[in-house]
Amino acid sequence: MNAESRILITSEKRKKLFDLKEFLYYKDLLYFFVLRDITVLYKQTILGIMWAVVNPLFQMVVFSLIFGKLASISSDGIPYPIFSYSAILPFNYFAQSLGGASASLIGSANLLTKVYFPRILIPFTPVLSKLVDFTIAFVILIVMMFFYEIVPTWNTLFLPLLIILMMLTSLGIGMWLSSLAIQYRDVKFAINFISTLLMYGAPVVFPASLVLEKFGYTLYLLYGIYPMVGVIEGFRASLLGFKPMPWDLIGIGIISSIIIFLTGINYFRRTERIFADVA
Amino acid sequence: MPEVAVRVDNVSKAYLIGLQEVSHETLGGAIFSWIKSPSRNYNILKRLNTFKHNEDSTDLFWALKNISFELKHGDTLGIIGKNGAGKSTILKILSRITNPTKGHAEVFGRVASLLEVGTGFNSELTGRENVYLNGTILGMKKREIDKKFDAIIDFSGIEKFIDTQVKKYSSGMRIRLAFAVAANIETDVMIIDEVLSIGDAEFQKKSLAKMTQKAKEGTAVILVTHNMLPIQNLCRQTIFLEKGEIVEFGNSSDVISHYLGQLNQDKTRQIWDFDHAPGSKFIKLIKAEVNSGGSVQVIRAGDSFSFDFVFYNLTNEEFEVNIMYHLIDEYDNLIFVGSSTMTNYKYKISKGYFRARCSIPADLLNEGKFVVSKLFVLKGLDEVLYEHSNLLTFELTSSAAYDHGHNGRIDGLLKPKLGWEVHSEKEEEALA
After folding, report:
1. Least-confidence region, from A253-262, B68-77, B218-227
2. Of the four, A74, A103, B215, B269, which is 20 to 30 A from B294 by CA?
3. Helix H segments across A226-278?
4. Tens digit of pLDDT for each residue in B385-403?
5. What is the pLDDT of residues A137-163, one digit of tens each?
6. Helix, coil or strand: residue A99
7. Residues B124-161 pLDDT 10s
8. Which residues of A touch B37 (CB under 8 A)?
């Protein structure tokens, strides 16, 4: 946007699905949004950034006791604590991003009504800022791998792909939730049970192989439409190496994630012009 | 660069206003309605999207109707009007916060909108972090802020606290810092809503000077405010809005005086034609006005002004007349009694018109609202020929050019400029 640029303001819908030029112009703003989220998150807490570790550790302990010991759920031969932790890691990122995204537009209402910037930056922010917690929690996983003497396989090289898939999914659903939430505040109340539902729906406390075993291959593939299934099973396979990479689940997950992302960005762009009026 | 900076073409904006709730008389009806309420709520929420309505819908409120104007680069435009006239809506459309329902607008070049000072300030962050956050929100790049950082800190005058969390700032410091960021944006079009009227008088002066300088450098400035003085000082042209429509668009001082004239109808000035003039069997009051000399009806506390009263003497005799009035402030404090007897001069009048003018010296009254609560026309020293209540109402604004009258007001009924002399002295002089 140089001095010669012309901005047309009309009642028409935006034509572009994603304005890359504008996005790049505002990349510094995205950077400072993310920086703000990270800086502010653990301010005035005693444990500070340690919360990024405490939460998943306690979840792991509870899951290992209840589902591992009491219910004796199968874990594909992987020690249950690391089996659940390797799922908690991507899932917590996913849940936190969704929580952040669904609250993000409402939380930025004062910005929406006072200043222009590409609104799409708002659901982008939690997807990036929650990576910090993810990274810190990841360190614990590495420590646990040492403890259980698990040697990473070559499949670990696919981890970046899985992380990108995890981010894309979070962003896609985040865009849906944030733009729905600002018009329909029901989302704010629904997000609690939605994330519980999403967690028990994902293979966090049980392996996806259990679905294959009980419901057959077709339903197992359908299960893969939930992209976090491929992500979580992929994390286990690539890091812990007890089984081959579940490319069928990951492949379906990628397709469905792209669809969620595209429809999400479309819905977001379609509704963003009323954000300031309904915020 | 094209000559035109902003072009607004037939812009209208509708808002959806709430529909009346249906009330129920029976429990059954209430329960049924409660069960049905999600679908009803859904329909209402869905309709928040104002772009799909037809124009005649009764629950639409048209905040703006067919607004058109143009602004060139380096030009300055003020927008005035009462609350709800649509001033802020225009700014919101031009700053792309909300879309028009009909029509379109074009903006050439980079826009910075200051609809609020310190948008996005986060109190947990330090001043420095907030400068970067706020700057990028306003459309600057990190590089640019790096370059301007010293100028921003310098303008804000809070260098010492720049690495302190903003939650520990006083509200004044916050405003200074936030405005300093805004003032240092390089932009082609600047949109400002009321923000010049914050901070103390000195800072306001500095801010206005900065805006004037920006306009000289070619920035198109649009300013919305309730306070006429910044508009008068900064804006060449002014739009007077009422109920979403442009009433008048032209030279600022003309538009302002029409606007104030309409606002203060029969307050700073009252004229009657002879047959309807109030009075007694001796005296008729034809005209009363607060006269500040200028064409614009803004009087600053530091200005001199006068009260002009025009009467008609109905009696045939010539007599000595005295005029007396009470000046009270908005809290009913009697500020003084103005009386012509104190001049020790005998004013003789005969039948016909006569005028009494009482000059109020500069630097006497404090800013605020005043009422000429009583006016007496006396024959000699004690015979009241006519008495009139609540004759004139007027306001003195702050002598600091851009003050709302709330900030920086010095306490006291009066704000006199007194004679002062302060100097050092030798011991023998001092003790003499």
Report:
1. B218-227
2. B215
3. 227-235, 247-271, 275-278
4. 999 888 888 888 775 544 4
5. 999 999 999 999 888 888 899 999 999
6. helix
7. 899 999 999 999 998 899 999 999 999 999 988 888 99
8. none
Contact A6 B98 (CB under 8 A): no
Dihedral angle computed from the Cα positions of residues B246, B251, B254 and B256, in that order, rounded to the nearest 10 degrees:
60
Taking the CA of residue B69 and the nearest CA in chain A, the distance in Å comes to: 14
Q: Using CA atoms, how far apart are residues B119 and A114, in angstroms rounded to an integer? A: 7
Angstrom CA distances, A98 to A17, A115, A249, B207, B381, stand at 22, 24, 22, 42, 84
Q: Which two tokens stand for residue A40?
A: 């502010």
8 Å CB contact of B106 and A26: no
First to last CA, chain B: 72
Test mutation, B92, B136, B186, B219, chain A, max A CBs within 10 A: B136
Which of A4, A26, A28, A271 best tests the B interface by mutation, with the highest count of B CBs <10 A?
A28
The set of residues, in sequence order, having a beta carbon less than 8 Å from that of B37 and lying 6+ positions away, is none
In chain B, which residue's Cα lies nearest the Cα of A183? Answer: B45
Q: ipTM of the predicted structure?
A: 0.85
DSSP-assigned letters across all residues of B170-232:
-HHHHHHHHHHHHHT---SEEEEESGGG-S-HHHHHHHHHHHHHHHHTT-EEEEE-S-HHHHH
DSSP character at residue B296: S
Residue B155 and residue B184 in contact, taking contact as beta carbons nearer than 8 Å: yes
Instruction: With CA atoms as reference, report the closest residue to A273 among A11, A35, A70.
Output: A11
Instruction: Count Cβ atoms below 10 Å from residue B363 Cβ, excluding itself.
Output: 14
pTM (predicted TM-score): 0.73
Of B48, B96, B133, the CB nearest to A32: B133
Test mutation, A116, A122, A124, A270, chain B, max B CBs within 10 A: A116
